[in-house]
Amino acid sequence: MSVELRKHIEEIVTLNDQEFEIINSHFKSKSLKKHQYLIQEDEAVKNIYFVVKGLLKATYTDINGKEYIIQFAMENWWISDFQAFYNNVKSITNISCLENVELLSVTKENLEHICSESHKMEHFFRVKNSSGYVALQQRILSLLTTSPKERFEQFTNQYPQLLQRVSKTIIAAYLGISRETLSRLSGKL
Amino acid sequence: MSVELRKHIEEIVTLNDQEFEIINSHFKSKSLKKHQYLIQEDEAVKNIYFVVKGLLKATYTDINGKEYIIQFAMENWWISDFQAFYNNVKSITNISCLENVELLSVTKENLEHICSESHKMEHFFRVKNSSGYVALQQRILSLLTTSPKERFEQFTNQYPQLLQRVSKTIIAAYLGISRETLSRLSGKL
DNA sequence: CGCGCGATTGAGTAATTTCAAATCTAGTGG
DNA sequence: CCACTAGATTTGAAATTACTCAATCGCGCG
What is the mean pLDDT of chain B? Predict the structure, then answer.
């Protein structure tokens, strides 16, 4: 019984104990240690994950072995390879733990079951998805319009917590700049 | 009574005539000519729009007057300033018509009404939003990992129709490269 | 103390941008 | 049918920016 998940859902819809219990029963706990993988390239992706505690990164590695960060996920965020999950294709990403992690997982079948049984939960996920969409659009705009320096400043303002928890190298891979450039930038602030 | 909208919705959920009629009644038609604006910077955004016919662009203009394309929308796509729409803030984007356009608009109140009255439609929009999320994640990955040349090739493969309907200058603004660079690139293909 | 990882710094290089000018194209009116 | 114009595209040259590669630094930990 996850207080965190309930609180998270109740930011958008209200649930009574029974409703929550049914939802909760479709989730499974999972713990991973720092450096362990949650999803690996070329695997099928059966679950999406709610982060109860800890921090993860979803990455894509190009043919030259260079790594790019698709998304971070910390407490109360959702993570998976959504492309692979929704379209039933193999993952092209790796998701691994930057800290010890506690997760709640839900399979596609269970997710669809929850949503079809509960209009409220369908609503919850619609709202979550639309917020996510807006956030990604902001990131695209940031990638299109701003210099590495501005991008780093925006990141600093938007996710100050992450600055503390993540290496600069990894932040550079999220912002789409080299670690050397980021280093030269941080000097000038 | 829009056949296009019904077909579009029925790609995801099935509706009987009565159900569709209720939904349809919450939409309003709107026509605009090429070059007209649908949404202008600093306005409140009350609607999202379904494109029945035509082509639009959503743009952001930076302090130097440089224009970037946030999204295109053609037949069967949805467009708005979603950030402004969902969060009730003023638009930071302009949306204008690249061709004469026929739209169906729905206000936030009506959208929420449709979704709360009809679990099916709530489902429809959840699925739409999740597909949209995945598509944006792909675009972010493309911006992070690929060179202008590769990006243009991807675009060509993904949206061959748009190549015919949109100027190179505008495609460059979508891909995040200068029109000169894009021009030099197209030569080499 | 020494190892290892992340961060920093420097120098040279590659890619893209910018600015300017030239060219091409489609549509308009004579 | 042709000339003209506005807009889009192309081309050139210089300047800028970020990247790569290599070396060094700094710190925490065994």
Answer: 96
